[in-house]
Amino acid sequence: MKTHHPTRDALVATVVRLLESSQPQDITLDLVLKESGISHGSLYHHFGAFPNLIDHALAARFSGYVDRSIDLLTEAAMHAQTREQLLASLKFVTANTQGPELSLIRAYRMEALAQGNLRPEFGALLGAEQQRLTDAIADLVRDAQAKGLYRAELDPVVVAVFIQSYTLGRAVDDVTPKHMSQDAWNNLVNSIIEKVLVVEE
Length: 201
Prior knowledge:
This protein is an all-alpha fold and about 200 residues long. Helix content is about 75%, strand content about 0%. The chain is elongated and about 60 Å long.
């Protein structure tokens, strides 16, 4: 989540840090003020009410996870000049975004999306962030299409949503007692990318 005032950024960062070990409902106003060293008046100046700060932090945590994936995709798009280079880079992205060690991150993202649908005000906040993330990935797809690496007939926005969807879809297996093969999952993702998204040889 991109903000512009240092105090506002510091408050959001404090709550995001507290969310690493606490549920949103367990984070109190006094705790945030103590951890941030920022006054009660400044908090209310920037957010109007404490629950608004919590929502902004939840949206920031959500977008922060996707921003890391976008950084990896950007590296892949920037340095790939050939189909083989692109596929190698995308396999690296798959290996670093689909693993079981990211199950908690996927759960937090799913939870945020659910809350975005259930609470209209939070939905508007999260929706703006989600649009930014989708637009950023779509721009990367357009760049790859301009290089002749992604299929030109594909809608970049649809591809961007698809990329985010299969990452979130991995959460279906996260809750099962007997997990699927991670290598088999990665191979399927890479095969779809190669056969559906990337131009043929």
